[in-house]
Amino acid sequence: MSGPRTAHRTRAALALVVTATLGAGCGILPELPPDLPDSVVPSVPPAQDPAGADTLSPDGSDAVERMAVRIRNVGCDGLSTGSGFAIDARTLITNKHVVDSSRSLQLLSYDGRDIPVDTASTAELADLAVVRTSEDLPSYPDLATSDPVRGDPVTVVGYPEGGRLTITAGSVIGTTTDPLHENLGEVLLTDAPVEPGSSGSAALDDDGRVIGVVYAKTSTDKSLLVPVSTLQDMLADEAMFVPLTEC
């Protein structure tokens, strides 16, 4: 990491706070049922009160945790929560479905600080959203220059179930066609555990670089990621994002 960011940690350091590890080893890419959205669990749970950040180091010095943000969507039909991560001092990435149908968005940093939202926009060809903040974010990672391949390790940092920040680990199983048909091109399939509320979480490689964005999990508990190549392509063209439509 550069600027306000600290150096990337190794996987050994990440393991200190990993809450769930890889179960089965890499195997044959499991079939995903086509055109059956109910086989995929959208990762946006009902809102809950923050459960604190006691999984973090006392001084909050860990840049991997510090770049993750909890998102609370005060929506048209109720409350929901998701995750997001910084890519620069005042820009967050999350999922379109995390911020959709919103009356207001509330951001919470790793240490419980409210971060005011400036603007938000959503992509039309991928389940991605960009949120701009009016105050600096604590830390942000680099984006990887290429997508991971099968067998590469992956670490997910986010706020499952709308609660405390957690880190889970696994590996890339392969690529697949998006069963929700929300994304342009193929998406990544991993066995890193995710839960409702993990939507928008950063998926990192061993060097702490973003390799994808969590957006759902399958009925067989595999996690689905928008690959970093798609994220980079979308960010390179401002016309790919439109202002968030409020209620």
What this model shows, in words?
- This is Trypsin-like peptidase domain-containing protein.
- InterPro entries: Peptidase_S1_PA, Peptidase_S1C.
- GO terms for molecular function: serine-type endopeptidase activity.
- One of its GO terms (biological process) is proteolysis.
- There is one protein chain.
- The chain is mainly β.
- It has a domain at 11-42 and 141-232: Beta Barrel (Thrombin, subunit H).
- 8% of the residues lie in helices and 38% in strands.
- The protein contains four helices and 16 strands.
- An eight-stranded antiparallel sheet has the order 7-6-3-4-5-9-8-16. The protein has a six-stranded antiparallel β-barrel with strand order 10-11-12-15-14-13.
- β8 (117-123) and β9 (129-133) form a beta hairpin.
- The longest helix is centred in the C-terminal third of the chain and has 8 residues, at 228-235.
- The chain is globular and about 40 Å long.
- The N and C termini lie far apart (37 Å).
Reconstruct the topology from this structure.
Blueprint: H1 11-14, E1 18-20, E2 40-42, H2 63-66, E3 68-75, E4 78-88, E5 91-94, H3 96-99, E6 102-108, E7 114-115, E8 117-123, E9 129-133, E10 153-158, E11 166-177, E12 186-190, E13 202-204, E14 210-218, E15 223-227, H4 228-235, E16 241-243
Parallel strand pairs: 1-11
Antiparallel strand pairs: 2-14, 3-4, 3-6, 4-5, 5-9, 6-7, 8-9, 8-16, 10-11, 10-13, 11-12, 12-15, 13-14, 14-15
